[in-house]
Every structure is written in C-alpha cells, then in structure tokens.
Amino acid sequence: MEATHRPSVLVVDDEPQVVWVLEFSLQAEGYETFSAHDGMEALDQIRRCHPDLMVLDVMMPRMDGWSVLEALADVPAAERPRVVMVTALASPSDRDRAMRLGAEAFVPKPFDMDHLVGVLQGFALAS
Questions:
Q1: 45 in a domain, yes or no?
Q2: Is residue 2 a part of any domain in this protein?
Q3: Which residue among 9, 12, 25, 57 sits deepest, i.e. has the most Cβ atoms within 10 Å of its Cβ?
Q4: Sign of CA pseudo-dihedral 21, 89, 70, 93
Q5: Is 3 inside a domain boundary?
Q6: What span, in angstroms and rounded, lies between the C-alpha atoms of 116 and 124?
Q7: Which residue in 76, 59, 64, 21 sits closest to 39, CA to CA?
Q8: Is residue 22 part of a domain?
C-alpha cells in the first residue's frame, strides 16, 4: 500500500504570532509545515524542503514578498511551490501585481482561517 503524500506548506511572515497560528492550524488540518520570517529565509527553505505550497506575506524585512515572487521565476517549475499571498496590502493593484508575479491566490489580512484552509486544500487536491 502506497503512503499518501502529506502536503507541505511554507509559512512566510515576519510576525511570529501569525506564523504560530498558521502553523498550528495547518498542522491540525494534516499539513506538514515549515516557516520563514523573511524572504531570504523563504528562498532557503524552498531549496531545502521543497514545499508544495507557500503562504507568503508581502511586508517583511530583508526581502519582501514581491522580491520572493520575482526570485521564484528562477526556480524550476517542478520545484516551485504554489503561492497564496496573505497580506494587509489588499488594493486591486496589489492583487493584480501578486497574480502577475506568479501568486495563484490572494487572501487579505485579517484573514479567515477556514477560507485560507479552503484555498490551500483546493491547491493540494489539484497537485
């Protein structure tokens, strides 16, 4: 019998309490989680852990979420996680920019955990 793949999520946010809530909630839903507190850590985690999905904030120190999306263009498609932007920047132009740079979903902060989990589950099932 083949073991089922447990989807993995990289949570990228500079607010420790947001990372904690997301990791706790996603682990309860059966996801394996990794975390990073800025874009530089996120890119390192992607190389080391190869997550299926990434929840990405925009406003972070050292390297913001926009720069992470731009850097992902250099990651081979098979190794690139599907990205859900979760950010307080919620204008239509921010949403458009995220999609143009490769994010597949956009969830404004403050977010509803059930909605975010539903978005991630949709991606995990499609993988």
A1: yes
A2: no
A3: 12
A4: positive
A5: no
A6: 12
A7: 64
A8: yes
Residue 124: strand, helix, or coil: helix
Structural domain total, the chain: 1
Q: Would you call 87 helix, strand, or coil by DSSP?
A: strand
Ranges of residues in the chain with a pLDDT under 70 are 1-4, 124-127
Rounded CA separation 107/127 (Å): 20
Residue 46: partners with Cβ closer than 8 Å, 6 or more residues away: 10, 54, 72, 75, 79, 80, 81
Look at residue 1 in the predicted model and tell me its pLDDT.
41
Q: What SS3 class is residue 62? A: coil
Long-range contacts of the stretch 40-48 (C-beta < 8 A, 24+): 41/12, 42/10, 42/12, 42/68, 43/68, 43/71, 45/10, 46/10, 46/72, 46/75, 46/79, 46/80, 46/81
Q: Each residue of 77-111: pLDDT tens digit?
A: 888 999 999 999 889 999 999 999 999 999 999 98
Q: Which residues form the domain of 17?
A: 8-126
Give the integer Cα–Cα distance in Å for 63 and 3.
37
Q: Check: pTM over 0.90? Answer yes or no.
A: yes
Q: Which single residue is written with the structure tokens 């969830």?
A: 107
CA distances in angstroms from 43 to 25, 47, 48, 96, listed in the order given: 23, 6, 9, 22
